[in-house]
Structure formats: C-alpha cells, structure tokens
Amino acid sequence: MMRLPWFEFRAPRSLDEAARILAGEGPNATLIAGGTDLLPNMKRRQMAPKVLVSLRHVAELRRNGVAVGAGITLSEIVRKPALPRGLRQAAAQVATVHLRNMGTIGGNLCLDTRCNYYNQNYEWRKAIDFCLKKDGDICWVATASKRCVAMSSTDCAPALLALDAHVKLRSASGEREIALADLYNNDGIDYLRRRPDEILSEVRFANAPSTYWKLRRRGAFDFPVLGVGAAMIGGAARLALGAMASRPFLVDRANDFLRGKELTDEVIEEAGRLAASRAKPMDNADLDLYWRKDVTAAFVGYALRELRGDDMRETRLRTARYQPA
Q1: C-alpha distances in angstroms, 271 versus 259, 263, 274, 305?
Q2: Mean pLDDT of all residues in 303-314
Q3: Three-state SS for 133?
Q4: pLDDT class for 154, splitting at 50, 70, 90?
Q5: pLDDT band at 219 (very low <50, low <70, confident <90, very high)
C-alpha cells in the first residue's frame, strides 16, 4: 500500500491568508485544491511537501460570471450551459465523475506533466535509476536531451487557449494577469511560469463557439494522448493542441492560415496538415507516437467541421474508443 508522507495542513479562508501562508512557508509549501493529481504524486514520492495549503474553503475561488474562479470543480463546469461548449466538453472528458467532483479548473490547468518513466511508484523508478524529472540525471525518453520531455496532459488548457483565455495570479505582493498561453513553458520539469508564491485565482475567456476533441485509448478515465481545442474568435477559427509537448500551445501557423478564411473542406484539410506539422509527440505515453502525430490532422478536421456546424455526433461516438488500425 502506498502511503502519504507526513505533512502539516493549513486551511485558509481567504486568498490573502493563503498567499501569506505561501510567502511565509516558502518552498516547503504546496497548494492543494481537489488533490486528484497531487496526492497520488505524494504517495509515489514524486512530491513531498512539508506543508499543504488547502484552497477548498476559499470562497473567492468559487466565483461565477464574466470570470470563473479557479476553485470551481470540473463537474460544476460541465453542468453550466452558459459556459462555452468546448470548455464543457473538455471538463466532461477528464478522468471519471468521482474525480471531476473533486478536481478544479485551476488544478487541471496546473496539472503536472506526465511520462511513462515518471508516473510509477518509487521502487519501480529506483530500479531503473530514476529519471531527469525526479531524482535522476537522464531522460529515459530522449537520453541525449538536456531537458525533460514529460508531456502536458491537461484537457481544459487546449480548450481555453482556443478561447483566448487569461488567468489571474495572486501573491502576498499583489496580483497580475497574463494570457493563459504565457503560463506554460515547454519543459517537463519547469512547466509553469507561475511563481511558487502565486495562486492561480481566476480564469477569463471569450464566450464563443468552440469544441474540444480528445484522443485516448479507452472511452473514459484515460489522460489524453492528443487534445484539440478549436474556437471561433473574431470571425476566425483558432486552434490549440494538448498532449503533443511539455506544454499546451496555440498552433500559430494554422491560426495565421485560418485568419479571414471560410471553413471549406480544402481550408480544413490544409489547417489539419499545418497543425500536424507542429505536433511533436514523444515515446512517453500510450499509443505509438508516429500514429499520434498522423491522426492530429484528422482530429483537427473533426474539430473544425464541428465548429463549422457539421453534425459530428456519429464521429464522436466512433472515436470515443479510437484505436490504431
């Protein structure tokens, strides 16, 4: 049985109190919201914070309206028809109902990067001499790499990137707002530009037509091995990819191409090709990496056709358990 390491627990009632605790505890402290990712990581000894700062009772993180508080659960997002369809689709495909009832939008955006050589128990990792992401000095996926290539597995980030999302970060020294795209680094270890003393408090996004398509082996529970977010912003389609690098990212070349164009079959095909050219999967997740890159164009096509207004229900049913031939 995997047990949690010892830790102290703090339960602030306001953002200011939580920010003061973070500032006072320094690197010893880690934030916890739903805990659906953090607690398993602690059991595997990938993380061992001395202090957990709970955000569960911070009412400011549960705001609704023009902005969504980072403490809103994924299940609550699924149940809010006023929110963009793409965001609700992404939230609905995270894990299982039980985990969505606990997991929050802020937690999903800050989800730790994943890798077959990292997301194992301590004894397994010790047997192969650990990896670059935790306790070792070599990346077992790309042994010549100086950088960890663990991949981003957040579902909500690609959907929100397509919706031109911005996030607010609160600390004891003040507050700042940045584009969601600027929250991420393409580095499996240093994957967030959020400072250790900052709390992701709020998410703002365009309420625009949008969709999200996910590739995984099973029809439920699994992390994505490809996520495609698409939205219509200012009359132009906008694409973002997830699970194709150590960060979710906007597909700039495809988005530049789509600007000012009607979503004809020819335009959609070219956008899919451009998006696939930017997909850089590594051999650190489920399914063959070359096949994952190849089907990127198809999934971009599905997303853009749904955004165009095509009825894609049968395709969604068919790809819910999408398998390589």
Answers
A1: 11, 10, 5, 11
A2: 97
A3: coil
A4: very high
A5: confident
Q: Are strands 29-32 and 51-54 parallel, antiparallel or unpaired?
A: parallel
Task: Decide which of 178, 204, 230 is a domain's last residue.
Answer: 204
Q: Which amino acid is at 145?
A: S
In a domain, 55, yes or no: no
| Same-domain status, 225 and 193 | no
Q: Where are any strands of DSSP class E within the chain?
A: 8-10, 29-32, 51-54, 67-69, 166-171, 174-179, 199-204, 210-215, 226-233, 236-242, 249-250
Question: Can you give the residue range of the structural domain that contains 76?
Answer: 61-204
- C-alpha–C-alpha distance, residues 151 and 124, integer Å: 20
- Write the CA distances from 66 to 25, 109, 112, 179, integer angstroms: 33, 18, 27, 16
In tens, the pLDDT along 30-69 reads 999 999 999 999 999 999 999 999 999 999 999 887 789 9
Average pLDDT, the chain: 96
Among 182, 204, 226, which residue terminates a domain? 204
Within 10 Å of residue 64's Cβ, how many Cβ atoms? 12
Tally of domains in the chain? 2
Determine the Cα–Cα distance for residues 304 and 68; give it in Å rounded to an integer: 26
Together in a domain, 217 and 252: yes
Whether residue 154 is found in the same domain as residue 288: no
What is the predicted pLDDT for the residue at 149? 97
